[in-house]
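Weekly modeling sync, notes
Attendees: S.R. (lead), two postdocs, one rotation student

Agenda item 3: backlog of single-chain predictions. S.R. asked that every request posted to the team notebook include the full sequence so nobody has to chase files. The rotation student volunteered to paste the first one in as an example of the format we agreed on. Action items at the bottom.

Example entry:
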Amino acid sequence: MVSCLSVLSITLFVQHAQAAAAFDPNGSWMLGDWNGQRTALQAQGYDFSFGYTGEYAGILDSKQTSTHGSAYTGQLALGSHLDLGKILGWQDTEAQITLTYRDGQSLSEHSPALAGHQSSVQEVWGREQTWRLTDLWIKKKFLDQKLDVKVGRFGEGEDFNSFDCDFQNLALCGSQVGNWVGDQ
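Predicted structure, as returned to the notebook:
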């Protein structure tokens, strides 16, 4: 009976603590405004991000049985963008920290039909299937915001050679230099 009441009270508390207007199609964030806290934090210079990308790949074959297989891989990204002008009074200065976790299997590595391919058919697979510090940088703007100086760990495709990745085949998206040579 006590455990049943505990579960009930936790459930009621969690529902009460849930962000108001979560999944509101007119809202700024999928998980709501956290009862106004997210807007307040953003006004103070703290902006949080959460993202998940999942990619399923398979090779369709006309044979009744196929050894080509299929694979699923995913990436979780947690980040925070900091406006250091608002937080510390450092005008025209910002910072970013992003942690990513990758998990899953690569069809490119497991399918005999893709043996010898130089690129992955799933763009979020790779760089080891583990937690990784993806971004940790600080950027300062000079000369009336005409010159940016950025120091730290970041992908070159963030500022140069940028190209959206709206397709999961790595050869067709993002900064090609980073895809073929770098570890971002």
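Discussion: group reviewed the output briefly. Confidence is low (pLDDT under 50) at residues 1-20.
Action items: rotation student to repeat for the remaining queue; S.R. to check formatting next week.
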